[in-house]
Backbone:
């Protein structure tokens, strides 16, 4: 499984969305992506990619696309 597939799967599992929904997905744009869902997603990302995401990046993670940029900062190539 590629890193992009792993990243997408995190969203599928956490938010029960379909692949076509991912590009436009934004924090608090759906009911499941609330503050608790956000922290669950962050924890799953850290575990999946073996990284520790800083508080600033947690706060800056506002969309599916922004998450890709943040992962790149930690050396995760998607």
Residues:
């Amino acid at each position: 499984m590629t890193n992009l597939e792993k990243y997408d799967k995190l969203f599928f599992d956490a938010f029960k969305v379909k692949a076509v929904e991912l590009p436009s997905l934004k924090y608090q744009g759906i009911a499941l992506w609330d503050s608790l869902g956000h922290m669950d997603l962050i924890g799953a990302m850290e575990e999946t990619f073996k990284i520790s995401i800083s508080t600033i990046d947690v706060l800056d993670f506002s969309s599916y696309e922004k998450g890709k940029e943040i992962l790149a900062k930690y050396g995760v190539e998607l």
Remarks:
- The chain has four helices and no strands.
- Residues 8 and 77 are 13 Å apart (CA to CA).
- The longest helix spans residues 35-49.
- The mean pLDDT is 98.
